[in-house]
Design brief:
Chain lengths: 566, 684
Amino acid sequence: MSSTAAGWLQAALLVVALVAVHKPLGDWMARVFTTDPVPEGPKSRLRPVGHWRVERLVHRAVGVDADTEQRWPVYLRSVLAFSLVSVLALYLLQRVQQWLPLDNEMAAVEPGSAWNTAVSFVTNTNWQGYSGESTMGHLVQMAGLAVQNFVSAGVGIAVAVALVRGFARSGTDRLGNFWVDLTRALTRVLLPLAVVATVVLVLGGVVQNLSSGTDANTLVGATQFLPGGPVASQEAIKELGTNGGGFYNANSAHPFEGPSAWVSLFQVFLLLVIPFSLPRTFGRMVGDRRQGLAIVGVMAGLATASLALTSWAQARAGGAALQLAGAATEGQEVRFGGPLSALFGTATTLTSTGAVNSMHDSYTPTGGMLVLANMMLGEVAPGGVGSGLYGMLVLAVVAVFVAGLMVGRTPEYLGKKLGRREMTLASLYVLVTPVLVLTGTAVAVATDTGLGSLLNSGSHGLSEVLYAFTSASNNNGSAFAGLSANTPFYNTALGLAMAFGRFLPIVLVVALAGRLATQGKAPVTAGTLPTHQPLFVGLLGAVVLVVVGLTYFPALALGPLAEALA
Amino acid sequence: MTAALDRRPVSPAPTEPRPRAAIEWGPALAGAVRKLDPRGQVRQPVVFVVWVGSVFSTVLAITDPSVFGWLIAGWLWLTVLFANAAEAVAEGRGKAQADTLRRARQTTVAYLLDGTEVPAADLRPGMRVVVVAGQVVPGDGDVVEGIASVDESAITGESAPVIRESGGDRSAVTGGTTVLSDRIVVEITSKPGETFVDRMIALVEGASRQRTPNEIALNILLSSLTIVFLIVVITLQPLAVYSGAEQSLTTLIALVVCLIPTTIGALLSAIGIAGMDRLVQRNVLAMSGRAVEAAGDVNTLLLDKTGTITLGNRQASEFVAVGGCSDDEVADAAQLASLADETPEGRSIVVLAKERYGLRGRDDLPGAEFVPFTAQTRMSGVDLPDGRQLRKGAAGAVLAWVRAQDGPVPPEVGDVVDSISAAGGTPLLLAVAHGGSARVLGVIHLKDVVKAGMAERFAELRRMGIRTVMITGDNERTARAIAAEAGIDDVLAEATPEDKLALIQREQSGGRLVAMTGDGTNDAPALAQADVGVAMNTGTTAAKEAGNMVDLDSDPTKLIEIVEIGKQLLITRGSLTTFSIANDLAKYFAILPAMFAGVFPGLDALNVMRLSSPESAILSAVVFNALIIVALVPLALRGVTYRPASASAMLRRNLLLYGVGGVVLPFVGIKLIDLLVSLIPGIA
C-alpha cells in the first residue's frame, strides 16, 4: 500500500471512530454537567444528577458547599484562584524536587524555567522549554505535571460548561458551581477515559514504570541509556486533555511514547475525542442538538480542509530525491510515513495539544505555515478541551451579530440578544490573542535578546519566533524547534503570553456567560437567523478564516509565505 | 374605541413616500468641513483614526515632500471629508421638513378666556386659550369646549380639514394648525419649546439623535477591529525591519486606513439618520431611533380590525327570506326600512336591493315616519302611511318586538342567524307589524369586507416570522371568521383596553416584541407597554405621549410599513459591514506585495492585479477606499433593497451580494484606479 493511500485510510478510520464515540460521550457529559434543579433548557429533557460519594469527600476536603450555585463573578474567582494556587504549587514542586523522593537525582529546576513550566502546564499549554528526561524527576512528572494535565483540562471543560449554561438558562444569575464542575470533569470524564487509554497504550508498547532508566548493550557493542518512567499514564492524559507535554523531549516521536503507527493514530484519536464531543454536549444542554451539530460541522470542515492542504503541501515538496521518497521526509516520522505525520501535526495544532510526532520546523514552508495557521485560528477547530468550544461559541456570537443584521433583526443567538455588553465581551475576546502574538513577535525580533535565540535567519527565523508566540498565546504548546527558548527572555515572555492567552479569554467568557444567563429567551420564528443550517456553518467557517486571515496575513507574508514563494 | 375608528377614511390610500430631491453635495461638503473639528470627530472612532492618520501624513508630506506623500495625504483628508459629508447629506435631508415645521411654529400671540393677549411663548400647561376661525392654535392642547374644523396641513401635509371637539378621542389640537371654522377653547398641555412640533423639528434635523443600542454594539465591534488592525500594522514595522524591508510611515498609515472598516464607519450614522428620514417621508415620526430598531424586531403585530383589516363599515351582502316570504318581498321591505337610514350599513342595504333585486331607488315616501336607531330599542325602521311598521335590528331586539305582539317566529330563524354569525357576518332581522300582528320577514346579512390585498400581506408577514393578532370588539365567533378570511393568526375578541394590555404583557413575557397602533386615551397604557406603539395623529394627546411613534396620516395599515423600514435599516447596516470587511482581502493583495516584493521577490506572486508600481498600488487602494464611501452614500440613504422573505433566503441573498461582492469588487476597482493613477508622473 502506498503511503498516501495508507494516510487516507488512517484519516477515514479516525473519522469513523470519532463519529461513533462523540454521541455517547457528548450525551454523557451533558448529563454529568446538568446540575440545576430546574432543567437547563426548556426543551432539554435532562434532569440533574446527584454527587458521587468520592466527590462528596473531595468537596468536604476542599471545603466547598457543593449544593450552592455561583454567580459569574464568584465562578470566575474560583477559576482564577484555583489556577493561581496551581501555578504556585507547581513552581514550588520543581524548585524543591531534589529533596523529595523519586527525584531521579535531578537538580532543582532553575527559576525562569520553573515559572515557565508552571504557567505552561496550568494553562493547558504544555510548552516545554526544557528536556523532560533530563530535567524533571518522576515525582514532578506525576504529582505536578500529570496532575495539571488533568485539572487544567478540567478547568477548560468547566468554563465551557458555564458558557453553555449561559445560553441554556434564562432569567438567572447562577452559572453553576465551579468546584462541582471541576470535580465531575475529573471523576466522571477525564479519569475514566484516561484509565482506559493508559491500558490501551501499555498494550501498544508505551512504557510504564518507575525506573530511572537502564544502560543497555546494543548489537553493535555500544552502550545506550534507556530512560524509563510512568510514560503511558501521562501519555493518555497528555492527549485526552489536549495538553501535549511529552515525557521525553522528543515527545510522541520518541519510540517509548509513540512505539507504533497504531499507537500514534490512537493518540490522535485521544486528543480529538473530547473537543469533538463537547459540541454534542452543548447541543443537548441548550435543548437543540442541531445547534451542536452545526458547531461540530464548522470544526470538522476546517480540520478536514487543513489536513488536506497540509498533506498536499508535504507531498508536493520540491526536489527529485523527495519526489522519489513520495514526500518531504526531513523531520518526519519516517517509521510511519509522511501522511501520519501530517495527520498528527494537523490534529495537534488544531487542538491546543501541541504534542508532536514530527518536527514542524522541518515541514515544507507551506506545510509549516499551515500548522502555524491552524493555531492562529484561535484553537477552535476543534480546539482544546473546553477552550475549543467556548472559543468557537464566541466566534459564533460575532458571526451571528453581522449575519443577524442582514436578516433584518437585531442579532440574537439561541434566543439571546447580542447587545452592547455581549458584543464588548466578544470583541475583546477576539482582540486578545492577536495582540499577544503580534506584540510578542515584534518585541522579540526588535530586541537583541530575542534575536539571540534564533538558529536560523531570514524568513525561517521569523517563522520560528512567530510560531513560538502563536503557540504560547493560543495555549497550544507545540514548538517549531530551531529556537532556543530556554532563556530568561523567552521563559518570561512566553510565560506571560500563555497566562494572558489563557486567563483573559476565560474572564471574558465567564462574564459573557453571566450576562447571557440573566437574559430571557426570545422565541424562534421564521424571521430568526437559523444557526443550524449549512449556510450558517459556511458563514461561521468563513468568519473564523477571515478573522485569522486578515489579522495574521502580513506576519505570515514575511515569514513562511515569503519562504514558500522564494 | 370602535366608534373612533369608524371616523377614519374608509380606505386609506397607501402612502407614497414623498418625492426626494437629488443628493445636495454642495452644502454637504461645507458641513463636512465643519465636522473636521476633532472634538466631534472622536464620536466616530473609525473615522477619527483616519483623521489622525491624515494629520500625520500631512506632516510627513511637508517634512519629506514627494508626489506620493502629498497624494496619500490628500486622499486621506478626502476620506475623512467624504465620511463627514455622508453624515451631512443625511442630516440635510431632514432640513426641508424642519423648515416647514418651523414656519408653522411662528404664532406669536394667544388670547386668554378674558380676552387678554399673551405671547405664545408665555403659555404654560393648564392655561386656557380661545381660538376662533382663521387663527392659529398657539400651542399643543386639548379642546375643552366647542367643536371646530382644523387645517393640519402644516404638520401632516394633508389638506382636508379634520374635526376637533371637546371630550372623546378627537380633542387634541397641535400648535401651529389653523382653525377654519367655529370657536374652541383649548387647554394648553405642553411648555413652550417642548411642543410636539418642537420635538418633531429636533427629530427630523437629527439634533436630538441618540445612538441606538444596536448601533452602539456595532460601533464596539468596529472599534475592536480597528484596534486589531492598528496592532497589526504597528507590530508589522519591527517584523519588516527584521526582514530588511523597513517601511515608510506614510505607507504604514495608508495600510491602516485601508484595513480598518472605514466604509461602514463612515456610513453608520448616515444609515441611522436615513432610516428615521424614511419614516418621515411616509409621514411617521419616530420619537427615538430605538423604536425604529425595535420595529425590525417585532414578533407580534396587534392590528385593529376596523380600518386595518376590514373596510371601515359592514355592508349588506344578501337577504335571506324566512317563514315563506319571497326574496323580493324581503328586498322590498329591507329597502323601505333603510331609505331614510343614512348610516353606511343602511345605504349598503339600498344599494344591494337595487343591484341584486332590481328595485329602483325611491326618493322619498310621503307620510312615512322614520324611526331612528336608539341604544334602548336597538332597532330602526319606518312607519308607513298604510299602517305597516317595518323594523330591522339586532336579532334579540327584533325577536322581542315580534313576540311582544304575539307574532310567530319561524323555526329556521335561529339557524340562519347562527350561520351568518359563524361566517363572520352580522345578522339583522327584518320584521313587519300590521294590524296588530307581527312577523319576521327575513334576515339581512351584513358582512365585514376584508380590504383587498391584506391576505397576501399577512402571508408575507408570516414568512417573515411575524404573528398577527386582530383586535376587535366583535364576539369570538365573528372575529375568528374574519380572521380566517383575512389570514390573521390570532384574535382578541370583545377586547377591552385591559385585555389589550394583558395580551401585550403576555407576549412580552415570552420574549416577543409587540407593535400596535392606537388613538384613544384608553389605548395609552397599551401604547406605552408595546415595544412599538404608533399613535394616530387624530388621537388624543395622552395616546401620542404614550406611543413612541406618531402617524400623521392616521393610517393603521402603516404599521406593516414601519416594520419593513426597521428591517431595512438593520439589513443596510449589516450588509455594509460585511461589504466593508470583505474589501480588506483585495487591499492586502494590493498593498502587501507593494511593501515587500522588493525584498522578497517571490511575494510578487500575490500581486494578482498586476498593479503597475508599489506607489501606484498603495495609492490606488487608498483612492478606492475613499471613493467607495461616496459611491455607497446613495445606498446608505435609500437602504438596501428589501423584499419580504424568510431569514435564510434573505441571508443567502445579502451574503452573496455584499459578502462575495465585497470580495470581488475592490479587485476590479483598484485595478481600474491603478490604470489611471499610474499615468501620474512620480507614481508610475
